[in-house]
Write a structure and sequence with these properties.
The structure is a single chain. This protein has one domain: Alpha/Beta hydrolase fold, catalytic domain (Rossmann fold). The chain has 17 helices and 11 strands. A 9-stranded mixed beta sheet has the order 1-2-4-3-7-8-9-10-11, sandwiched between helices. Helix 6 runs parallel beside helix 8. The longest helix has 23 residues. The chain is globular, with a radius of gyration of 21 Å. The two termini are 32 Å apart.
Length: 466
């Protein structure tokens, strides 16, 4: 059945032809050749990259997952060998998924959302604010019987009924999330349950997993002419924190990055008038447990490594990554979006670190404190990004879906800024297809969103998520 679906998809797309040719698209003749003999990899891992401080390690001979050209437009499971240093948090093998297109070399790399963890309960799935896939990633994760995962974003849904974008014609790479460290960590942590009866060793291995994915892509797929790095929540953070590595090593001609609701804000001890930024306690916690800083002199760690290779990145301020990327890649188009009323990422950011939230006289007051800190961080982020011509920021107020968390999941609807006559798709089009400065827009009149009726589709989805 999968082969029939894939073959029909190829026939329809080839017969119809692209609506307009994009850099990286193949000719009709080349597409027909690709259906029999897929283009070979032309940007393989070099010896220098294989011996980097965070090396690109490839699957050993005989372990590579081959590609059957009859399965274009279906999800291919790629399991990475332990020799690549790729592993899920619980120690199980790391897998990712590729959905190849014969019509273009262009690629979208989508990093999966799914929380974060820094203790036993949140890493094993025992708390509401925990991390995704504590038991690892099954082989059929994106098979038809679990297709809802693959539909989490229009960016990886080729025939979306509501929301259209050019990347739906590209090769798609789905990077699962199973380490609880927003794709940034490099440590093995020991966590003990609250009752002291169980202890686990948890692999915060996000950075090495992404490096192994990049190595496989370089050795198995043609270099993309255009590439988008994106994801929401933890995946949004990962799309930003790994953009430099991905951009440098995949070497596209045109690079794009969209961080949906995974902000890395400037959070230093003496910001402004001497008051720490709201996310400072969170950043302090994750630096420790996720191994982001070197544990001893001369030892490599993710932040130290990034500071060595990305000019302008300050290890004392993780939020400096956005400004550094905008400067390093002035011709790339970068973007950030989230809702003012996001009550998901905000909870991760503050609830465990500000006792006055959980000790508030009522849940409503605690919620207000959480939102207030989020609004302060949002203002700070907008002030940082808005002056950067190649870095757009788009902040609508709310959407009655998933606690207003993630603007690009399910579809692009109801992410409008009504006072400016803008839809979320206008921002995405500016990012992917525009010229000149990337669109900047922040909603200041919140009354229109709160007056909207509930969308029946969103109401159904929220009920299924309960």
């Amino acid at each position: 059945m999968k082969r029939i679906i894939a073959t029909l998809s190829v026939v329809l797309l080839v017969a119809g032809g692209p609506a307009s040719a994009e850099p990286g698209d193949y000719s009709t003749l080349q597409i027909l050749v690709n259906l029999v003999s897929p283009p070979p990899a032309n940007n393989p891992v070099t010896p220098a990259q294989a011996n980097d401080d965070y090396p690109l390690l490839v699957n050993p001979a005989g372990f590579d997952d081959g590609f059957d050209p009859s399965l274009y437009y279906t999800w291919q499971t790629v399991q990475l060998h332990p020799d690549t240093d790729a592993v899920c948090g619980n120690g199980s093998p790391y897998k990712f998924f590729v959905n190849r297109a014969p019509t273009t070399s262009n690629m979208v790399v989508f990093m999966e959302p799914g929380g974060a963890c820094w203790d036993y309960e949140s890493c094993t799935g025992g708390s509401l604010l925990g991390a995704r896939n504590p038991n690892g990633v099954p082989d059929d994760y994106l098979a038809l019987d679990n297709f809802s995962t693959g539909l989490s974003s229009p960016f990886i849904f080729r025939f979306h009924p509501y929301s259209r974008t050019k990347v739906q014609a590209w090769t798609m790479v789905y990077v699962p999330y199973c380490t609880g460290d927003v794709y940034t960590g490099d440590s093995i942590a020991e966590y003990t349950s609250a009752d002291g009866t169980d202890t686990i060793l948890w692999h915060h291995n996000g950075l090495r997993n992404v490096r192994a994915v990049i190595a496989w892509l370089k050795n198995n797929i043609e270099r993309p002419v255009q590439m988008l790095s994106t994801g929401c929540s933890a995946g949004g953070t990962g799309s930003l924190s790994n953009y430099y590595h991905l951009r440098r090593d995949m070497a596209p001609d045109l690079g794009f990055m969209l961080n949906d609701s995974g902000p890395i804000v400037s959070a230093v001890a003496n910001a402004g008038a001497g008051t720490p930024s709201p996310s400072y306690p969170l950043h302090t916690q994750i630096r420790d447990v996720w191994g982001l800083d070197a544990a001893s002199p001369g030892e490599m760690a993710p932040l130290v490594y990034l500071a060595e290779i990305l000019p302008g990145f300050d290890t004392d301020d993780m939020g400096s990554i956005s400004t550094a990327l905008a400067s390093q890649y002035p011709n790339d188009r970068l973007g950030h979006t989230h809702f003012w009323q996001d009550y998901n990422y905000s909870r991760y950011s503050y609830e465990d670190f500000y006792p006055f939230i959980n000790q508030a006289p009522s849940p409503a007051v605690g919620e207000f404190y959480t939102r207030l800190l989020w609004w302060l961080d949002t203002v700070s982020l907008v002030q940082q990004l808005a002056p950067l011509p190649n870095y757009g920021v788009y902040i609508p107020n709310n959407r009655d879906l998933n606690d207003s968390h993630c603007t690009t999941i399910v579809d692009f609807r109801h992410g409008d800024i009504q006072e400016a006559g803008l839809e979320l798709e206008d921002f995405i089009d500016s990012l992917l297809d525009g010229t000149g400065p990337v669109l900047n827009a922040v909603e200041l009149d919140w009354s229109a969103d709160f007056a909207k009726p509930q969308d029946p589709l969103y109401e159904l989805i929220d009920q299924l998520l309960l």
